[in-house]
Each structure stands twice: as structure tokens, then as C-alpha cells.
Amino acid sequence: MKKVSFIFSSVVMTAMMLSSCGSGASKEEGASKEVTIGKQVWMTENLNVDKFRNGDPIPEAKTDEEWKVYSNAEEAAWCYYRNDPANGEKYGKLYNWYAVNDPRGLAPVGYHIPTDEEWTALTDYLGGEEKAGVKMKSKNGWYDNGYGTNFGTNSCGFSGFPGGGRGISGTFDSIGKYGYWWSSSEGNTFNAWHRRLYCSGGGVYRNFNYRSRELSVRCLRD
Q1: pLDDT (tens digit, 9 = 90+) per residue, 138-191?
Q2: Three-class secondary structure of residue 20 per DSSP
Q3: In contact, 202 and 150? CB cutoff 8 Å
Q4: 27 with 159: CB under 8 angstroms?
Q5: Which helix (H) or strand (E) holds 120?
Q6: Is 65 left (phi over 0), alpha (psi -120 to 50) or beta?
Q7: CA 20, CA 151: separation in Å to the nearest integer?
Q8: How far is the CA of 210 from the CAs of 27, 33, 70, 93, 189, in angstroms?
């Protein structure tokens, strides 16, 4: 009986150690939904919530007209790419920056939307913007244009998929070609910082984007 108890305890302890060590494996490889990269702990999938942290619903912009209403009012909104819930299963929801910056809190408890500086800390750890992208990109799902396409290795476990985005006119673009992720840092009156992965490059691109655009969101543990 003591031997059985010892074996059971060993199994439990091993499972606990594996669950807490942060193996770096990605969700696409059947691992956990977060990964440790350097000193940061990132979710390995895009945000897919329709309520703020306090329980208030986030409006869904299903049509171009609804999109324009929320954009003109500078109010939070989300959508699925091409308004198709099937896209949400893989890519999560797309959010405008007004949702990212809403004081009710877009990220789940224990997480936050990364700042521009925190995104930079990630890319610096992975070797800089020119090298980090190939390590962050998923191994599949990227458009192959036949001209030196640089598919990802996902060696860091970030699992960045090309979920595309929604432009300021309400049009959808770039699924399979680009992955866009908001930061919580504003740039100026009209823009905020974001990061972008591209199907044909191994880098990470830092740039402004209009706050009314809808992009993916990736959360970072507090």
C-alpha cells in the first residue's frame, strides 16, 4: 500500500512540475494557452471575449454601417473577420483600439494588453525586430506567394496566426498574409502602436494604426 501511495504521489508531483515549468510549446502543438518567453508570460491565442472585465457587453459591429457608427463615436466594438464566427475559432475576435483602451478592462483578470514597450521587450529578447518574426509565426496558415515566403518556426511558442484586420472604411483585408496586434500605447490623437507579422518576411514590424481599425489582441500576464 505504501508503494502504491508513493507512486501516486510521484505522478502528481511530476504533473504539477510539468504544468508550471513553461515548456514553450505552442497551442497548435496541443500545449497550454500561455507560454513563458524571457521574463514575460504571453497567451498563445488571440483574445476572443465579447464582454469587458466588469461584465458589460462589447458591441459587435456586424455591418459597415454599424462599424462607422462606433468609429465616428470613438466607442468600443469588435467583429469576426468577414463577420464569420468560424474565423473566430482560429483567429479570435478583432477589436478597435477604443475597446483596448476602455477603462472597464478588455483583458481577463490577471492579464493586460501589452504596452508598446512590452512588445519591444519581447522582440528584443527574440533577437530584434528583424529576426523575431519567424520565431513568432505559426508553422502553417500563411499565404505562399512563391517569392521567398518565410514561414514561421514558432520556436518561441507565440503561435502568431495571420488573422488580418478591418480597415477604417470597414473593409476586411489580409487574412493569411498579415497578423496585426494592438498595443495599449497611443501614438497621437488618431493612432495607436501595433505590431505586424507578414507572410513573406521574418521580421516584426512596429507602426501606428488608426484607432478605429479592428485588429487582433494578445494578452500578457500581469
Answers
A1: 998 888 766 556 678 999 999 999 999 998 888 899 999 999 999 999 998 899
A2: helix
A3: yes
A4: yes
A5: helix 116-125
A6: alpha
A7: 29
A8: 30, 29, 14, 18, 9
Residue located via cell numbers 513573406:
200
CB-side neighbour CA atoms (13 Å) of 199:
17
Q: Is 125 exposed, middle or buried (0-12, 13-18, 19+ CB in 10 A)?
A: middle
Each domain of the chain, given as residue ranges in start order, spans 2-221
DSSP E strands, the chain? 34-37, 40-43, 78-79, 94-95, 111-112, 165-166, 172-173, 178-186, 191-198, 204-210, 220-221
- The answer to whether the beta carbons of residues 165 and 214 sit under 8 Å apart is yes
Instruction: From residue 170, give the alpha-carbon distance in Å to each of 13, 76, 138, 209, 212.
Output: 51, 14, 27, 14, 9
Of 191, 160, 156, nearest to 74 (Cα)? Answer: 191
pTM for the full model?
Answer: 0.83
Rounded CA gap, 115 and 220, in Å?
9
